[in-house]
Write a structure and sequence with these properties.
Number of helices: 19
Strand content: under 5%
Distance between the termini: 63 Å
Number of strands: 4
Radius of gyration: 27 Å
Helix content: 55-70%
Structural class: mainly alpha
Order of helices and strands: HHHHEEHHHHHHHHHHHHEEHHH
Shape: globular
Largest sheet: 2 strands, antiparallel
Length: 491
């Protein structure tokens, strides 16, 4: 009865591929091989065998990466994040007429394209809520509009400090949506900060074979004696290590194997050493505050393993490593010149804000405006700080400097962003005893990262570097978009 039926493919006018003669497929295979050999021979004759092999490897791994990316968005997200975290110089395209395309920018373009294609094909809605998204978009557009009116000279710092971090927020919110991916991300952060710590120690003791990339060794003229890491800037390097120190607590507390727990405790001690060798007071404070907040929010699990480390590390540092006689550290701590210049810069920023209260003097216009404020500054304990001591200083914080440049309107928008992050954190942290491991284990770590960022921002301007803001807003995106089993209780 079924034999008399014509196949649907025949009815529609198509041939069944299974019915094609075998010699057709054989011809196709032979034709493909011949064309491949001809193209390969031409490329080898024109470019050489070495370049041909490199191109072949790029095509192979690029194709593999493309397949993996479309299957799992989390993979290109992690790769992009790592390139921002100091690996951007592995490969780049630099042209005289176009913007330089470093690896992090290429990976962001790729991630954006794959993300949009997948969400369009699968018709997935973007993850809510959207109140923080709207505020980020408004503040970013406000600053970008001012840059456009000024002539677009400072678009690159805006992209580094706003576009890339806000992108990290958006991608993390929509991609890192479950505990399994959050655990993998925390593991990536642990491996990354371990690399930073080892690099900082290798820089301190001149173990050059352990330092990678080698460009680190050529960029220490302004920070002689201090570890600069792949970011080539000691204060920033120290602040990033300080922000990431709480990640150690998560793995120490959740490790079931005792040997692994001891290894992780040693890793935390190495982390303190890496932070120390940046010789930056603001970074030290950021790291201490980050660890203190994370431990205090989960004292039963995080404070208990931290206590022996805090006892052993100073003893080892003083008795065995002789850091108690570290003259360079004493010089850095007792140096009052930089402290006075920073007070002078802060006072100048307040004067500029007083004269331009609503919209400030414009993005990156502090340099031009400061020449109109040459009065000396009286600082209690430091005496008179004259303009010559800070006349070449840039903005050194994320509070007073932006207040002078963006005015009260910009400060209110930025303050609203911080307020919404704090509000959603507080609402979800109250659910920590209801069985969700993200609320119990992860939120204290995120709180430490947030506090480390905000405290470190008292002494350094993050706008020239993307990673601090990216780390901060990535964690904010995960926090804001995560929907646990008790999400219905969160307003």
């Amino acid at each position: 009865m079924l034999r008399g039926r014509r196949p649907l493919a025949d009815k529609l006018g198509f041939n069944d591929p299974r019915a094609l003669p075998r010699w057709n497929s054989s011809i196709g295979i032979v034709f493909t091989i011949v064309v491949s050999l001809a193209v390969s021979q031409e490329m080898i004759s024109r470019f050489g065998l070495q370049l041909f092999v490199v191109a072949l490897a790029v095509v192979f791994f690029g194709s593999l990466y493309a397949v993996l990316s479309f299957r799992n968005l989390f993979i290109p997200f992690i790769v992009w994040f790592l390139t921002i975290g100091g690996l951007r110089y592995i490969w780049s395209i630099q042209t005289p007429l176009l913007p330089d395309l470093f690896l992090d920018r290429l990976m962001m373009i790729w991630l954006t394209g794959v993300f949009m294609v997948k969400f369009a094909v699968e018709r997935k809605p973007f993850r809510g809520p959207f109140k923080l998204d709207g505020l980020l978009a408004l503040f970013g557009a406000y600053v970008l509009t001012r840059i456009f009116l000024q002539g677009m000279d400072f678009f690159n710092p805006w992209a580094m400090s706003t576009l890339i971090p806000y992108g990290a927020y958006f991608f993390a919110k929509n991609i890192v949506t479950d505990y399994r991916r959050i655990k993998i991300l925390l593991l990536v952060l642990l491996l990354l900060v371990t690399y930073y710590d080892i690099t900082a120690i290798a820089e301190k003791f001149g173990i050059n074979w352990m330092i990678w990339p080698k460009e680190i060794l050529a960029e220490k003229r302004a920070f002689i004696g201090r570890s600069v890491g792949p970011f080539r800037q000691a204060p920033l390097f120290g602040t990033i290590i300080g922000m990431l120190l709480p990640v150690h607590l998560y793995f120490i507390a959740t490790a079931r194997n005792q040997a692994l727990k001891i290894l992780l405790l040693l890793g935390l001690g190495v982390g303190f050493a890496g932070l120390y060798f940046t010789y930056t007071r603001g970074s030290w404070l950021a790291g201490i505050m980050a660890m203190g907040v994370a431990a205090s929010l989960n004292p039963r699990e995080y404070l208990r393993p931290l206590v022996p480390v805090l006892i052993v590390v100073p003893i080892v540092a003083v008795v065995f490593l002789g850091l108690g006689d570290d003259q360079f550290m004493k010089k850095r701590v007792e140096e009052e010149g930089t402290l006075g210049s920073r007070f002078g810069t802060a006072a100048t920023a307040l004067r500029i804000f007083k004269d331009n209260p609503f919209f400030g003097v414009g993005y990156f216009q502090f340099r031009k405006a400061r020449v109109n404020y040459i009065e000396p500054v009286e600082v209690p304990g430091l005496g008179t700080v004259r303009f010559s001591q800070f006349r070449h200083n840039n903005i050194h914080d994320i509070y007073l400097g932006p207040l002078a440049e963006n005015g009260l309107f910009g400060a209110l928008l930025q303050g609203g962003i911080y307020f919404l992050i704090f509000k959603i954190f507080l609402a979800k942290f109250r659910l920590r005893n209801r069985g969700d491991p993200v609320y119990f284990w992860v939120l204290p770590v995120f709180a430490g990262i947030f506090v480390g960022y905000l405290v470190g921002g008292l002494a350094i301007d993050y706008r020239f570097f993307a990673f601090t803001d990216t780390l901060f807003y990535m964690c904010a995106g995960i926090l804001y978009g995560y929907q646990g089993p008790e999400q219905q209780h969160v307003s």
